[in-house]
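Here is the promised in-class demo. Please do not try to memorize the tokens; focus on the logic of going from shape to residues.
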């Protein structure tokens, strides 16, 4: 009886030791989000705003639509023109949604 319990404990410990790194790796990936994709419709550098036709943004429960966003830093709009394909990070703040990162995907 003692020997059987010892074997079960060794097998359980070994299985846990093998599975733990895999589970930790999967958990780290779940925290990362792919940046939403979109197309620049209009850029208003003076107001620090950009109109984006974007695909669905599931983590914000947004369907695909065209929307005007405030940007965190107006300098992020440099070099962007209507028609550019982009990836962007949008965050919720007290005033609505703000773009905190833009990558040109052309």
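The designed amino acids, position by position:
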């Amino acid at each position: 009886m003692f020997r059987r319990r010892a074997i079960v404990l060794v097998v359980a410990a070994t299985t846990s030791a093998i599975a733990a790194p895999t589970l930790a790796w999967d958990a780290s990936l779940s925290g990362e989000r792919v940046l939403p994709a979109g197309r620049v419709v209009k850029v208003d550098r003076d107001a620090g705003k950009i109109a984006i036709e974007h695909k669905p943004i599931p983590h914000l429960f947004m369907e695909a639509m065209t929307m005007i966003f405030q940007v965190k830093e107006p300098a992020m709009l440099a070099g962007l023109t209507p028609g550019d394909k982009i990836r962007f990070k949008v965050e919720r703040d007290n005033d609505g949604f703000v773009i905190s990162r833009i990558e040109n995907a052309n």
